[in-house]
Specification:
Keywords: Membrane, Transmembrane, Transmembrane helix. There is one protein chain. By secondary structure, the chain is mainly beta. The protein has a domain at about 140-255: Neuraminidase (6 Propeller), CATH 2.120.10.30. Helix content is about 5%, strand content about 35%.
């Protein structure tokens, strides 16, 4: 037997003996494990507080929790309301059509005028194009419009006859008479002595100088009243004290009308449908120089009577007369202090739609448009079923169903 084999046999015998010894120790001589302590008696513990939470669902880090937004109502009920985009492009110079349901507007992308009917179809009013119209003033019957261009050119276009007439280039700021047969505006000559408030035929013929303006042309606002009595406002009255203005009402025949005393600055006027009263806005220290609405009688011997604050902050040009007693207004959710001097500061403030009864002063929240934008102009259909508005920053035309 070789020496290597003897060594392997010896090692195997030693390993076998060691294993036998460990087995005998584990079975016969290993100490027993300590006994477990007895279980405590069961106790009924009353339930206090909230039940334990269910296992949580892992969230993606940084992801906001989902919130259920209120659904917008298809019809205005005083809350969030659908504001449907109704024109195929951005619009300018939107105005309610002669039928009281359609909307006439200018499309700056095509340079053409359209009528948006009550079914949402855009119908061209003419095949002529008018590039870069800066402003369009519609006649009451919506059959004509005075178009003002950036270079100062002015054109009267008749959409019924498809004819146009050139109006003097130094005329501006036009307003039609209630029957559409006359216009008023400002004739701005180079010499201040040749600057006048004028009236004329819509095509510019038959001009009549009404009042000299001199250096005060920027203080005169042509606005022909529905009662046919007033053709302009003028902020050229006598000083009325700090933070107050005297507004002169100008007629077309040299009438000596009473003036309006306005508590505040930045006067803007908006006629009721019958011209008997005036909705106006002004800002003052009392309101933090935020515009506030007032109403006052503005016809005949009652001019200036029944002046009343309406306690609602917006500009008068964001309102429209639905009747002789009711206005619809776009009212900013909030206005920063001093915005009356810097209106652009409100361009990003969303508007709410209110109706205002100027007989009682009652204000009713009509809708919160789901577009949540600032509104530049408001129109209400003659049947009271629809409200149209244009967004200030985008020019989108939207519609809210009132009924």
């Amino acid at each position: 037997m070789s020496p290597l084999r003897r060594i392997l046999i010896l090692l195997g015998l030693l390993a076998f003996a060691g294993g036998i010894g460990f087995a005998i120790y584990w079975v016969f001589f290993r100490p027993a494990p300590p006994a477990a302590p007895p279980a405590p008696p069961a106790v009924n513990v009353p339930v206090v507080g909230l039940p334990p939470a269910a296992p949580g669902v892992p969230r993606v880090p940084g992801a906001p929790a989902a919130e259920a937004l209120p659904a917008a109502s298809p019809v205005a009920r005083g809350g969030l309301t659908q504001a449907e985009s109704v024109a195929p492009t951005i619009v300018r110079a939107a105005s309610l059509g002669a039928d009281g349901k359609s909307v006439n507007y200018y499309d700056p992308t095509t340079g053409r005028f359209y009528r948006l009917d009550e079914f949402g179809e855009a119908i061209p009013l003419s095949d002529k194009t008018f590039p870069n119209v800066e402003r369009a003033t519609w006649s009451p019957a919506q059959s004509k419009a005075i178009l003002e261009f950036p270079d100062g050119s002015n054109v009267l276009f008749d959409f019924e006859t498809q004819r146009q007439a050139t109006i003097p280039k130094h005329w501006e700021d036009f307003s039609f008479s209630p029957d559409g047969n006359k216009i008023t505006g400002k004739s701005i000559g180079i010499d201040p002595n040749n600057r006048w408030l004028i009236t004329s035929n819509p095509d510019g013929s038959g001009a009549i100088p009404i009042e000299p303006m001199g250096e005060n042309g920027d203080k005169v606002t042509p606005t022909w009243s529905p009662s046919n009595q007033i053709i302009a406002f003028s902020k050229t009255g006598n000083p009325a004290g700090f933070g107050r203005e005297e507004i002169l009402l100008i007629g077309q025949h040299g009438e000596n009308f009473k003036s309006l005393t306005v508590e505040g600055l930045g006067f803007q006027g908006n006629w009721a449908a019958d011209g008997a009263r005036l909705l106006y806005s002004a800002h003052s220290a009392e309101t933090g120089y935020r515009p506030e609405l007032w109403v006052v009688d503005a016809a005949g011997d009652r001019i200036g009577a029944n002046r009343r604050r309406l306690n609602i902050q917006t500009w008068a040009d964001k309102c429209t007369a639905a009747s002789s007693s009711v206005f619809y207004c776009a009212v900013p959710r909030t206005l920063p202090e001093g915005v009356g001097f810097a209106r652009d500061a409100a361009d990003d403030v969303p508007d709410l739609i209110y109706s205002i009864d100027i007989n009682t002063g009652r204000q009713t929240l009509v809708a919160e448009p789901d577009s949540r934008t600032s509104i530049s102009s408001v129109m209400v259909s003659s049947d009271g079923k629809s409200l149209y508005f244009t967004e200030k920053t985008t020019g989108i035309l939207r519609k809210i169903a009132l009924q």
